[in-house]
Amino acid sequence: MTVVEIPGSKSVTARALFLAAAANGSTRLRRPLHSDDTEGFAAGLAALGYAVTGDGQDWIIEGRPQGPANDADVYCRDGATTARFLPALAAAGHGEFRFDASAQMRRRPVGPLTEALRELGVELVHEENEGHHPLRISARGVKGGELTLDAGLSSQYLTALLLLGPLTEQGLRITVTDLVSVPYVEITLAMMRSFGVEVGREGDGKVFVVPPGGYTAVEYPVEPDASTASYVFAAAALTGREVTVPGLGKGALQGDLKFVEVLERMGARVRIGADEVTVTGAPGGRLSGITVNMRDISDTMPTLAAIAPFADGPVRIEDVYNTRVKECDRLEACAQNLRAQGIEVETGRDWIEIKPGTPQPVEIATFGDHRIVMSFAVAGLRTPGVTFDDPGCVRKTFPAFHEEFAKLRASWGI
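Predicted structure:
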């Protein structure tokens, strides 16, 4: 049995950094993810005046319940969580705050969040393109109240507002008209509970009632990243091998662990224990065709798309429009690369269908997207000679991916 240690969750680390900064007291984050995204988030907190120090693999954050009080210029790099969560945190403070990001992140929308902040009375200006970075906030604290939010493009808009809620004077009542990636919101609610805040749900779960009162510092362990684990799970399914990932299990927060259910439907055997998950591929890496809705686990869409040609029938992935507004248009990036490999692909606004075939070794166009690299690296287990135009972009979430994946291949003799 091959055991693979997966780095900490990016989603959990980002939320934990926000919660720790907002909490009353000193928080220790145990085994957080150390990557370009999370280090960018920590650097953003430091720019806002928060004390973030390292202790081995852990981070210690001194909370400021009153919010940032120093004027600051924050560069969010490529990080969507940084670019969306930190403006909400800054709004709760007092001062002049400017946020900018990479060209890639500037293209990604932030408008639904900033419109909601304006609805709450936050003075906010987009300096160039409306609804996009860079933006400037003149913060005087947030009173709170009621608002309506469309989170159909990203659940991060809702998460940013939920995290902000306890820092407002009156709390927030958020009515959501559309919501994608629901499991990520459940991560947020569970983590807020760990830091002492219970969010109420009304109206068939579409209304979130966030009380005021702030957060309490804790010692918080960060579980392994389920999205990253999808690559080793897919690798086992594709090659007929077995792999176990410790630290994820029945109590895991992350919805992307449900990707193993997709692999199970395709013929792999899955065992989910209390604190580990094991995936065993069918003999010869045999995979069945499938039609699957991946709206709630869309970060794993490229993983499935890359291995789809090896199935014995078409693989159709539905309800993934939001993947078009990630680091790149992931749906189109997968289609373009698969076609370059000689695979027949059809796409629509929110779906992709991939026919069985034998992918040819080509240089994969990564579009600077870490998930495109890692997904097609998995498929490369059965297509020797695949290369990448920007293999280093994995630093966003898993800087050591290529080295660790090479160890996995070696352990399997591939």
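Summary: DSSP finds 13 helices and 24 strands in the chain.
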